[in-house]
Structure prediction request, 141 residues.
Amino acid sequence: MVDEFHALNENKTWSVVRIPKGKKVVGSRLVYKTKFHSDGSVDRHKTRLVARGFTQTYEVDYKETFAHVAKMSTVGVLLSVAVNHSWPLYQMDVKNVFLHGDLEEEVYMKLPPGHSQSHDPDAVCRLHKVIYGLKQSPRAW
Prediction:
């Protein structure tokens, strides 16, 4: 959990502000997941802060959505071209990939559980970067 909050703060994902009049606030929650080694032993415990984006309204909170999808036939063609030209192939994983996308809309989110200012009912996060769960997240990345 410390790593997740550290990454959010490093990327300046939000700033803590007061709720503006007439603005809707999206909820947030922490999602916990246990990662295992191939032998079944526990590798590590992961935590991810997720916005409750299902409460967002189309045309009010966001204008469009997008999903990154590749057809298997396209992947097959790319792999065969790489093999035929003896190109090296690499696999990569980007940690916190959504945190690198800037948010165009004005979105306010409830403070995450355990935040130092979570006792103040008027304090919310003004999001500057997208986070998991928002309808705009895949498009912004």
In short: The chain has a mean pLDDT of 78.
